[in-house]
Amino acid sequence: MSQGSGTKGVERANQRPCWALVILALLVGGCGLLGRGGEPVMTESMTPQWYAQNAVILTDYLDTLPASQIGHPLSGILLSDGEHWLAGEVYLGSPADLPEGVNVRLLSQDGEVTAYIWLDPGAAPLDLTPCESGPQRGIRARRAGGGAYTWRTLKPDHGLVYTICPPANWLPKNLPLTSAPPPA
Fold first, then answer.
1. Count of CB atoms within 10 A of residue 43's CB?
2. pTM, two decimal places
3. Which of 55, 87, 110, 141 sits a CA distance of 20 to 30 A from 45?
4. Please, are residues 152 and 140 in contact by the beta-carbon 8 Å criterion?
5. Residues in Cβ contact with 90 at an 8 Å cutoff, skipping those fewer than 6 apart
6. CA 125 to each of CA 121, 152, 167, 170: distance values in angstroms, whole numbers, following the listed order
7. Number of Cβ within a 10 Å radius of residue 126
C-alpha cells in the first residue's frame, strides 16, 4: 500500500465521527423536522387528505354567499378538522369584470384581504402574480387550507386557492364594513 492511500484512509476515518455528530444533531435537534416531537411541520389543513375532504365544501360555501352578506362577518363553516373556517372574516364580495368562469370571493380579517379563487370547468387558465411583500412574498397562491400550490397559472382542475395579495383592481372601493351581522 502506498503512503498516499494510507493518508486518505486516515482522513476518512477522522471524518466518520464528524458524520456521526451531524446525524446525532439531526436526530436530537431536528425532531420537529422528522415529526417526532415539537410542532408538526404541516398542519392537518395542509395535507392532501384535508384538501380532498374540504376544498369542495369551502368552494360551495363561498359560492353561495349572498350579496346581503357583503360588509358583514361570516358565521363560517365547520370542516373535517372540527374548526369553523372563515368565521369572523368579513365578506367583501366578488370583483367586477372577471373573465368568464373565474370565481373570486374577497374576505377581510384584521385589515388583511384574502382572495379565494377557483375556475369553472372549461374556463381559460388564470395567470397568478407572486406577492411582492409580506408573509407570502414570492408566492402566487396557496391551496385552501394553506398547502403548497406551485403552479404559475390556475386551471379549473386545480381547485380552490387563495392569495393575500390580490390584484388591486379586484379590491372594493369605499366599502363600508360593519361588525354587526347582516339583516335577516
1. 13
2. 0.70
3. 110
4. yes
5. 71, 72, 73, 74, 107, 108, 109, 177
6. 10, 10, 16, 17
7. 20
